[in-house]
Amino acid sequence: MIEDRNLPVGTRLVARHKGYVYHCVVTSRDEDKVGFTLDCPDHPDLHGKEFKSPSSAGSAVMGGTACNGWRFWSLAPTGETPAPAAGPAKKGKAKFRTIKKVANQQGLDEGQVRYWCSACQKSFVVEDGQEPEACPEGHRNDDSEPTA
Question: How many CB atoms lie under 10 A from the CB of residue 61?
Fold first, then answer.
């Protein structure tokens, strides 16, 4: 988080997002205004792009999601050079689970477990020790597009 917003030209900023490290440099746009230029050689779609604010630079890094750039970026340690982006720890998307065990199991009889189906937006109960393959409506975890 950046507290002093009077950043001199040349100040390096750093942020981590989804397992990647991003860098931004405060640049001069004209006499009175500064710009924020992304310095991300491992991301050619972003590298070298200039923005009017740290928020718009952060938003670009986040794929268009609005952000508070003063909170998103931090001052890079002195002398830090752009580190290669290691990439996310996990490759690929997380597997979507249609049927999940509910954390709150209160109000059930002994030996019962409550599950939630995100496709039909309903909970259901099974006997303890059974892992449901589908909800009562027929939605399964291996459905490619869970819909009601």
Answer: 24
Residues 6 or more apart whose Cβ sits within 8 Å of residue 117: 98, 99, 123, 124, 135, 137, 139
Residue 144: per-residue pLDDT: 54
What pLDDT shows up at residue 68? 95
Question: What are the two backbone dihedrals, phi and then psi, of residue 70, each rounded to the nearest 5 degrees?
Answer: -70, -25
**Is the pTM above the cut of 0.85?**
no
Count CB atoms within 10 A of the CB of residue 119: 19
Could you say which residues of the chain have pLDDT below 70?
79-96, 143-148
Max Cα–Cα distance, the chain, nearest Å: 73
Cβ-based neighbour number of residue 111 at 10 Å: 9
Cite the beta strand spans of 29-121 per DSSP E: 34-38, 50-51, 74-75, 99-101, 112-117
Q: Helix, strand, coil: what percent of the chain each, to 5?
A: 10, 30, 65
Q: Which helix (H) or strand (E) holds 14?
A: strand 12-17
Query: What is the number of alpha carbons within 13 Å of residue 60 lying toward its C-beta?
Result: 22
Residue-level pLDDT at 91:
46
- Report which of 42, 49, 43, 2 is spatially closest to residue 25, judged by C-alpha positions: 49
Phi, psi at 59, each rounded to 5°: -60, -40
